[in-house]
Amino acid sequence: MIHLTQSTKPISAKNIKRIWHLIDLKDQVVGRIAPKISSLLQGKEKADYAPYLDAGDFVVLINSAKVVFTGSKMKDKKYTRFSGYPGGLHIASAEELIVKNPNRIIEEAVSGMLPKNKLRAKRMARLFVFPDERHSYKSRFGTK
What keywords were assigned to this record (predicted)? Predict the structure, then answer.
């Protein structure tokens, strides 16, 4: 008789296997795609997920300049940053930001979906955003 034992031991950091995901953002809604990206960065879809381990995957996003918003968010949504100096508050609408720096829209949306803890910066470091189809990680996906 074969007796199989199941282990409930959590995965250790040295046994984490990271895979690469390539996601095309063309005509994708920012609010719908951001939770999916954050889930990949956290590793929540893996069977051996542990919230205290950084077991997520690498995510490469292309065509960030072609994302869309629902409703009138393209004009109404405001992105702010503050330099720390008097008069250093910079406010830009999504419409302006998609022309200047389309990557920031996606990065802020995904960052807002991640847990606010020490692992957030490490997870964001595995996110690579490109405004068009050209990216430098072609060798990771087997395409030339």
Answer: Ribonucleoprotein, Ribosomal protein
